Amino acid sequence: MVRAWYMDEDEGDQRNEHHKNPPEFVDIEDLKKLTGCEYFKLNVATLDKDNTLKKIKDERGYTYEDEIVCSKECLPNYEDKLKMFYTEHLHTDEEIRLVVEGSGYFDVRDKNDKWIRVEVVPGDMLILPGGIYHRFTLDNKNYIRARRFFIGEPVWTAYNRPSDDMDCRKEYLQGLQKGKSVRAS
Ligand SMILES: CSCCC(=O)/C(O)=C/O
Ligand SMILES: [Fe+2]
């Protein structure tokens, strides 16, 4: 099962786990309520043979798909990209990632603006709603390979915080208050 926890305030190495003392874990139902993030566990070995991924894609309208590899060797402008990923930002649309190899951390702000760290490993499909403030970092193993999905033509634009006046941000916050799942704007 995916692991998620509230982060400490330590400014040290972003690739460490950053647990509070004592650790405060967040289960998947609470993650959804607190952030609007959705999660599916898939079997990487049978991904293209079983119907689970296809069903999710069809139901959610994901028509675009590609793959990203984050490693020194494979990611052009590696250092700059990683800095960009770890700068708090939002997107107008969902950010959908399915990890197929390696691992990393997505940090998402909860409804009280606290950081929750979500550890992603192979088989984890994490869906961040449009309008949520978040960031991503590799862990100490420095490698992740993930499939990215999108509804229609992909838009990767990141809007750094503060972007509170954006419609997608306002809609996200309204949806969160009503306890609704928030999707793309
Ligand atoms: C594992 S995917 C790399 C991170 C990324 O694509 C992104 O947009 C972070 O916000
Ligand atoms: Fe992002």
UniProtKB/TrEMBL annotation:
Look at the named UniProt entry and state the broad enzyme category this protein falls under. oxidoreductase
Pfam families found in the cross-reference section: ARD
Biological process terms from the Gene Ontology for this record are: L-methionine salvage from methylthioadenosine
Location comes to: Cell membrane; Cytoplasm; Nucleus
Task: Show the ranges annotated as biased composition (Basic and acidic residues).
Answer: 13-22
In terms of CDD domains, this protein maps to: cupin_ARD
Instruction: Indicate yes or no for the key word Signal.
Output: no
Give binding positions for Ni(2+).
Answer: H89, H91, E95, H134
An example GO CC term for this entry is: cytoplasm
Comment on bound cofactor: Binds either 1 Fe or Ni cation per monomer. Iron-binding promotes an acireductone dioxygenase reaction producing 2-keto-4-methylthiobutyrate, while nickel-binding promotes an acireductone dioxygenase reaction producing 3-(methylsulfanyl)propanoate.
Task: Name the positions where Fe(2+) binds.
Answer: H89, H91, E95, H134
Where does the record place the region Disordered? 1-22
**Annotated coiled-coil segments of the chain:** none
EC numbers listed for it are 1.13.11.54, 1.13.11.53
Task: Write down the superkingdom of origin.
Answer: Eukaryota
GO MF, one term, reads:
acireductone dioxygenase (Ni2+-requiring) activity
Q: How does it sit in the membrane?
A: Peripheral membrane protein
Q: In which pathway does it act?
A: Amino-acid biosynthesis; L-methionine biosynthesis via salvage pathway; L-methionine from S-methyl-5-thio-alpha-D-ribose 1-phosphate: step 5/6
Family note: Belongs to the acireductone dioxygenase (ARD) family.
* Function summary: Catalyzes 2 different reactions between oxygen and the acireductone 1,2-dihydroxy-3-keto-5-methylthiopentene (DHK-MTPene) depending upon the metal bound in the active site. Fe-containing acireductone dioxygenase (Fe-ARD) produces formate and 2-keto-4-methylthiobutyrate (KMTB), the alpha-ketoacid precursor of methionine in the methionine recycle pathway. Ni-containing acireductone dioxygenase (Ni-ARD) produces methylthiopropionate, carbon monoxide and formate, and does not lie on the methionine recycle pathway.
Know the name of this protein?
A: Acireductone dioxygenase
